[in-house]
C-alpha cells in the first residue's frame, strides 16, 4: 500500500457501569523496590500524563475522570498534557518517573500496543516499564464514508474499491495510529489496494471525507455523532466482534462480509514499573469507583465514549495479545516509521 501527505457516534445506557536513571537493562530496573507506601497515600497532588494535546479523545476522557478520582482519593488530580512523537514522549516521561504513585499515564491502546512495534527508538516498553492500573473506556471504531459515495453498505464498498485498485483512499488521524492500522487490516482482509492518507488529527480527516476528497475513514462514536443527522456521512459497519447497543442497526464488519477485521481500541491508566502493588491496588479501586459514578457515566455517554472498567490483568493480557496481531498486520502492510 502507498501513503501520501494531504494538503490538508450516541448515547450508551448509563448502566455501563519509572525510575530516575535509565539502567542498561531497561527503565523498569532503574528504581529499586520501595518500602510499603504510607497509610496517608496519597498526601499530595497526583499527575495524570496524557500523551496527546488538550481536546483530543484521551484528554476528553481524562479530565472528568481526574475530577472523579480527586474526590475519591482526597487529593487534587491534575492533567499534564505531554504530546509529541505519536504519544511516545508522554509514555517515556511516565516510565522514567519515580514509581511513587504520583505520576500515572492515561493513554490509548495505540501508544501502548503499536508504538513499540512501529518505533524502534522508543525508550519505554509498556510490557517492561509500565504497570496497568485498569481500563477506562472501550472506543469502538466505525467504518465511515461520505454520504455522496454511491455505495450503501460494506459489500458494495468492497466491490467499488476492488473495481478501482489504487484509486480509493482511506484517511487516518496520523500514520501508525490505530485508525491507520485498522484500515490496513481491512484492506488485507478484503483484498483491496487502498491509498492511506494520514492527517494531523481526526477532525481534518473527517472534513475531507465529508467533502469527498477521501472515501473511507475509521474513528469513534464521539467524533461523528454530531454529523449523523446531517446526511453528510454514512456508517457502514463497526469494527467490533458484536454490534453496539448504541447503533443496533449497524452491522459488524464480519456480518457485512469482511471477517477477521475486528479491532479492540481502548484507553487505560498505567503506572511506572515497580510501583508498590498497594499503591496500584488503591488506584485501581479508585478507578473502578469512579467509573461507577452516574455523573461520569452521563458525561461519557453524551460524548460518545463507552466506560469499561477492567482490572490490571485484563489490560496486561490485551497488550500481549494485540501486540501479536498488530505485529503481523504491520509486517504484511510493510509499514515503516521513524
Automatic annotation (TrEMBL):
Kindly state which keywords UniProt assigns to this record, in alphabetical order.
Signal
Statement: the UniProt record of this protein carries the keyword Signal = yes
Q: State the PANTHER family in the record.
A: BLR1237 PROTEIN, TRICARBOXYLATE-BINDING PROTEIN
- Lineage: superkingdom: Bacteria
Q: Which residues cross the membrane?
A: none
The identity of this protein, by name, is Tripartite tricarboxylate transporter substrate binding protein
Has UniProt tagged this entry with the keyword Calcium? no
Family label: Belongs to the UPF0065 (bug) family.
Task: Please give the Pfam families that the UniProt record associates with this protein.
Answer: TctC
- The signal peptide here is 1-30
Q: Which organism is it from?
A: Roseomonas indoligenes
SUPFAM superfamilies xrefs = Periplasmic binding protein-like II
**Alphabetized InterPro entries for the sequence:** BUG (IPR005064), Bug_dom1 (IPR042100)
Tell me which CDD domains the record gives.
Answer: PBP2_Bug_TTT
Amino acid at each position: 500500500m502507498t501513503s501520501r501527505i494531504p494538503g490538508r457516534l450516541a448515547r450508551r445506557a448509563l448502566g455501563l457501569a519509572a525510575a530516575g536513571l535509565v539502567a542498561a537493562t531497561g527503565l523498569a530496573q532503574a528504581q529499586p523496590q520501595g518500602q510499603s507506601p504510607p497509610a496517608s497515600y496519597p498526601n499530595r497532588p497526583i499527575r495524570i500524563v496524557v500523551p496527546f494535546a488538550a481536546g483530543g479523545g484521551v484528554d476528553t476522557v481524562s479530565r472528568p475522570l481526574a475530577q472523579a478520582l480527586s474526590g475519591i482519593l482526597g487529593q487534587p488530580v491534575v492533567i499534564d498534557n505531554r504530546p509529541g512523537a505519536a504519544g511516545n514522549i508522554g509514555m517515556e516521561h511516565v516510565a522514567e518517573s519515580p514509581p511513587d504513585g504520583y505520576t500515572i499515564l492515561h493513554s490509548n491502546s495505540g501508544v501502548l500496543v503499536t508504538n513499540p512495534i512501529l518505533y524502534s527508538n522508543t525508550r519505554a516498553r509498556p510490557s517492561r516499564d509500565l504497570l496497568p492500573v485498569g481500563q477506562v473506556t472501550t472506543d469502538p471504531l466505525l467504518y465511515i464514508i461520505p454520504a455522496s459515495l454511491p455505495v450503501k453498505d460494506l459489500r458494495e464498498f468492497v466491490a467499488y474499491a476492488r473495481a478501482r485498485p489504487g484509486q480509493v483512499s482511506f484517511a487516518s488521524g496520523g500514520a501508525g495510529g490505530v485508525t491507520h492500522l485498522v484500515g490496513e487490516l481491512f484492506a488485507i482482509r478484503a483484498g483491496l489496494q487502498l491509498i492511506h492518507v494520514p492527517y494531523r488529527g481526526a477532525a481534518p480527516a473527517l472534513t475531507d471525507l465529508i467533502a469527498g476528497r477521501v472515501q473511507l475513514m475509521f474513528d469513534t462514536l464521539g467524533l461523528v455523532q454530531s454529523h449523523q443527522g446531517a446526511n453528510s456521512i454514512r456508517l457502514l459497519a463497526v469494527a467490533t466482534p458484536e454490534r453496539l447497543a448504541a447503533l443496533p442497526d449497524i452491522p459488524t464488519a464480519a456480518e457485512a462480509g469482511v471477517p477477521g477485521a475486528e479491532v479492540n481500541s481502548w484507553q487505560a491508566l498505567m503506572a511506572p514499573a515497580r510501583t508498590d502493588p498497594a499503591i496500584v491496588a488503591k488506584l485501581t479501586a479508585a478507578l473502578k469507583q469512579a467509573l461507577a459514578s452516574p455523573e461520569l457515566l452521563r458525561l461519557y455517554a453524551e460524548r460518545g465514549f463507552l466506560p469499561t472498567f477492567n482490572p490490571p490483568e485484563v489490560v496486561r493480557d490485551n497488550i500481549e495479545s494485540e501486540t501479536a496481531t498488530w505485529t503481523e498486520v504491520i509486517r504484511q502492510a510493510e509499514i515503516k516509521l521513524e
